[in-house]
Amino acid sequence: MCRSIKTLRPPFTEDATEEDMAAAALQYVRKVSGFRQPAPHNAEAFDEAVAAVTEATVALLEKLQVRGAKA
């Protein structure tokens, strides 16, 4: 699932931005929902899901400890 989402943690991506994380979240929500663009009555739920997944991604990458990575 979501094979096009790139790995954002070091050493694969040293400088992942929140924009990168939001793009990955959008791809994930599109895949899970089955909608590339939600209908107007689903837009709020879609946007909230993208924001929640982005937030979770930021939190995850902040907490991950990668062996051999420079601190």
Automatic annotation (TrEMBL):
Q: Which Pfam families match?
A: DUF2277
Judging by the UniProt lineage, the source's domain of life is: Bacteria
The molecule here is called: DUF2277 domain-containing protein
Q: Which organism is it from?
A: Actinocorallia longicatena
